[in-house]
Amino acid sequence: MPAFGVTTPVLDSFLVVILDSIRSKNGQRITELIQLDFDSLPPDRQKPYADLNSELSRCYPVGNDADLVTRCQRDLSWDEFGTFSISFAESIVHQCVIALGDSKYGVIMIPIVLSFSRTLATIATNLDRNPSLVKSDNLVATQDTEGAPGKVSFVEDAANVLRDAFIKCLAGSPGVQRTSRPAADDKRVGIYLTANSCLKLLTQCRKLRNAQQMFSSIDAQSPPLSFYPAAQRVTYLYYLGRYHFANNHFLRAQPVLQKAYEQCHRQAIKHRRLILIYLTASNICLGRFPSPTLLSRSEAAEVGSRFLPLCKIIQAGDLGRFHQYLDLTSESGEWFLKRSILLQLRDRCEIIVWRSLIRKTFLFSGYMGEEKKVPFLRLNYVRDAAAWALPRYRGGLLSHGLGSQAVNGEETYIDPEFRELDAAINETGFDPESGQYDDQYIGQHTPSSQDTAEFPTMTEVESVVLSLIQQGLLRGFALHTNPRFAIPGSQKAGGPMKAGFPKVWKVIKSKESGDPVPGWVEEGNLGSEGGRVVRIVGARPAGA
């Protein structure tokens, strides 16, 4: 194969190498020839492109593109490249994603598309970070993938281009079974390469939720993930795990991220650390804490320093410290927020903190029972324990200048989301009862006694206990009259602490359906025709 730039004219030598690469379907060689980032090349590789640019400017000046296209098409023999089509040849210049759809030669465009996408992603990211470089009216006014009107960012627009490339790779070759391993000339080899590039951009622009259709398409059409190289598997499982975590499907995210962590190369410390952050967060939301052995690994240094204090807080049942550690104004809260795991930790772990608080209160103040007498815990003790813990959090808020509401000379806790609610109602004239705005209500609202009630109330404590019982995290029953939590049959089960407080992880894990994780195609989950296996055990007859 002649080297590009060795003979003259330069365009002729360039086309010869390109055509030889097309005949041999050497997409990687074409990718090396078609360079977008000229300045990043070493000087010895810049010279052929400089010579080519000079020749094109001399022989095909601006406005003479038609002659250049005709010259390029002259070397494309119709007998040899009949299926290659004129539109394909033109699309190499104008839109390589269209070229990817060619049935015979499209597969060679995969590395080119990925090379272009990396450059496109870099440019898009820089433009998003420096919006002053472009006018705002240059943003594409369109609809996002969920149909919502608005302006699409440069990064999201780049992701949409890659989504089209992904669809063409997923379509593969006509007549090829999805259960077969993709061959080198099968466009299906690019399914996870294009998917990973698109998912990276969607994550970067915080639109990972838009990947739902992509995961559904992989479920329906993709060969098993195990057919693909480890690097592609690990990257894909990482983004799939993040997607399920972002949607609060922790039981789906945990095994996916676990597999990604296990298959990631031990020397890839940075990648293992990134996976471990979301794997640890998923496990904690499921009541499963990291072991000392795991935290002693090199990739877990920063992970342990952030999550270990949180685990100790959850185990202690310290509601006040829990809110303080995950507060938006705290340094730790900012760290979790930056990695998009703060809200999930706050929402899911708070109930586990309550469970720990109830358990510790039972241990110190509960009645352990005797023969034929049921152990129980008075719920006013739980309320007192929570009321003792939360003032420390309120003190932390005061130190940050956030303030609380004073009642009888004492500070009363107000949730951060509702701290300015009374002022907003007075300013807008909003009527909470009717849900309407009326100017005559402006300045007329006064906080009700319920707004300044002691927190938490007994009703709230009872609600928490009932919720924990419903979830299976507490075993027993609650009494409303003379509020108590009782644990019957504890003597036969090893005592009230063992009988009434099962392991959180085991309880949640036992509720796992056993269905395949959406978006993760495994060999054992494919039916005879390549579709998903549907479990119908326990299903009722049709029409029942």
Tell me what you see in this structure.
This protein is mostly helical. The chain has a domain at 414-454. It has helices at 10-23, 27-33, 43-59, 65-74, 86-94, 96-99, 110-129, 154-171, 191-204, 212-221, 230-246, 250-263, 269-285, 292-295, 301-316, 319-325, 331-338, 342-365, 379-399, 421-428, 458-471, 496-500, 504-510; strands spanning 140-143, 149-152, 376-378, 405-407, 410-412, 430-431, 436-437, 477-479, 484-486. Helix 7 (110-129) packs parallel to helix 9 (191-204) and helix 8 packs parallel to helix 10 (212-221). The N and C termini lie far apart (70 Å).
- What is the distance, rounded to the nearest whole angstrom, between the alpha carbons of the first and last residues? 70 Å
- What portion of the residues fall into strands of 2 or more residues? under 5%
- Summed up, the helix count is 23
Structural class: mainly alpha
Gyration radius, to the nearest Å?
A: 31 Å
Mean pLDDT: 80
Number of strands: 9
Oligomer: single chain
What can be said about the biggest beta sheet? 3 strands, antiparallel
Residue windows where pLDDT falls under 50 for at least 5 positions: 82-93, 138-143, 395-411, 449-453, 533-544
| Shape designation | elongated
Concise description?
Helix content is 52%, strand content 5%. With 544 residues, the protein is mainly α.
Topology:
Elements: H1 10-23, H2 27-33, H3 43-59, H4 65-74, H5 86-94, H6 96-99, H7 110-129, E1 140-143, E2 149-152, H8 154-171, H9 191-204, H10 212-221, H11 230-246, H12 250-263, H13 269-285, H14 292-295, H15 301-316, H16 319-325, H17 331-338, H18 342-365, E3 376-378, H19 379-399, E4 405-407, E5 410-412, H20 421-428, E6 430-431, E7 436-437, H21 458-471, E8 477-479, E9 484-486, H22 496-500, H23 504-510
Antiparallel strand pairs: 1-2, 3-9, 4-5, 6-7, 8-9
